[in-house]
Every structure is written in structure tokens, then in C-alpha cells.
Amino acid sequence: MRRARGLAAGFALLLASRLEAQDFAAPARAGPAGSPLAWLECGLPAAGGGTRIAGAATRWFALPELTTRALGLGISWRGARSAFGLSQTGDPELGWTALGLAAGGAGPRCGGALRAVARRDRHPRPEPGPLGPGVGFEAGAGAWAEAGADLTLWASAPQIWRRGAAPPLARGLELGGALRAREGGLWLLRRASARDADGRAAHEAGIVLDAGSVSAWARARDGPLRGSLGLAASTRVAEAAVEVSSHPVLGETVSLSITVPAREAHEQGAAPALPPAAP
Fold first, then answer.
1. Does residue 14 have a pLDDT over 60?
2. What is the pLDDT of residues 44-81, one digit of tens each?
3. Tell me, what CATH number does 131's domain have?
4. E strand segments, 62-221
5. Over 60: is that where the pLDDT of 11 sits?
6. Would residue 270 count as lying in a domain?
7. Does residue 177 lie in a domain region?
8. What is the maximal distance between C-alpha atoms in the chain?
């Protein structure tokens, strides 16, 4: 039975190849973010500074054998941003371990970072490859800029270069824009097909409502049509977030995260930004 569940998890992963993230996924809205996990996923550090520690757990499609656990550390010094992270996905027979690094900078009106992830299969006898048995590597970048009053535009290409074992999910260029307001905002984005230049792009639309230290958001995606709901609450000592995503074939995905600011998390004059999309 355990073997059958493992095969089912692997099959679900193949069917989910159009999802946008895997190793450092965390519940969040779209765009630049203050979470180090978001920097590692998309290379989009927000203007706010400080040192932060973030942990996240995502259970994909209600399968215990396909759960991702991630831990990230983000360090800011003036305009510089860097993040380090470690994650593990799945059971040993079909899972993998990932180590991530991001480095860049951000200010009140623009920001960006390079990001890289190295992975190794947890199988006791992984397949050989140019970087070693079961070893894969990918690198990319992201950037954002304020394009006017309350409008933020961004581009993220997380897999510009790949080598070794294929990544669990192929990710194409993402182009997006978010319009902020005092009590919320909305966003639109487009993700190009990573497998075929003539392939069908994916699209997403979302809306967020803010009420003090609590915010809620909803998003809709196509290919196939599906949606998700998220909720985040923050205090002086931590921020917690949860997001539940539905899929018409594979079922529900639940993602939880906790972010703890180890030092002051906001710089004077920093513009607020919307965090990135979780799959």
C-alpha cells in the first residue's frame, strides 16, 4: 500500500507540472515579498529590510508522501538582500532535498536578486548525471520596479540555466503587475510555458483585502481553471499564513508558514509590496 501511495504521489507531481513552485513554496500574495522563502523561489525581495527566519510546510494534493518542508533565513543590510534555505520534499523513495541561495538588493522603488537551487534525489540509488548521481542545479533571477502611483511591475525567470537532473517542475518567465490601495489591492500575471516556446501560457488574477494586522486574498488560475484562498495575521513577534488551493483533478493543497523577524523588519521610507504567488 505504501508503494502504491508513493507511485500515486509521483503521478500527481507529473500531472501538476504547470504549478509554479515547489522547493520553497509558502502562502503569499503575488509580487515582491519580505519572506526569504519568496526570495529563494522567485528572486523578488521587497523594500522592507531586517533579518527574518521563515518556515513552511506544504502538503500537495492531500498526499502525505508529497509534503514539502522548508526553512529559510533572510538577511538585509541597507539595500543588500540575501537568503539561504533548505527544503525536503517527499518520502525517501521518490523525494529530494534542495539547498537554495539568493542574493541581490532592494529599495523603495525597485529591487531584484539572483537565485540558485541545488537538488539531490533521496533515493538510495539515484540515476547518474553530469553533476553526480541524482544531482541537479538551476539558476535564475527576478526584478521589480514601481511604475507609477501604487503600481508595481515585475519579471521572474527562475530557471534561466539548468544542469544535471531535471527539476521537479519546469518554470517559465513570469510577468506581472500589482495595484495597491490602502485597504487591499489586485494583481494580474502571465507565466510562459517552460517546456515549449509555442506552448500555452498560464494566467492568474488575484485580489487582497487588508484590515490592520490581518489580510486575506483569493486567486484564480487557468490551465485548468482553479482557485485558492489565503489568510495571514501578524504580531510584533511573528507572522503566520495559510493558503488552501483546489485542483479539479488532484484535490486540495494546503500550505502553512511562520515568519519570525530576528531584527527590525522594516526600513524607514520603504514602500509596501505584495508577496509572491504560491502554487
1. no
2. 999 877 899 999 999 988 888 889 999 999 999 889 99
3. 2.40.160.40
4. 67-77, 80-89, 96-106, 110-121, 135-148, 151-164, 174-181, 184-191, 202-211, 214-221
5. no
6. no
7. yes
8. 56
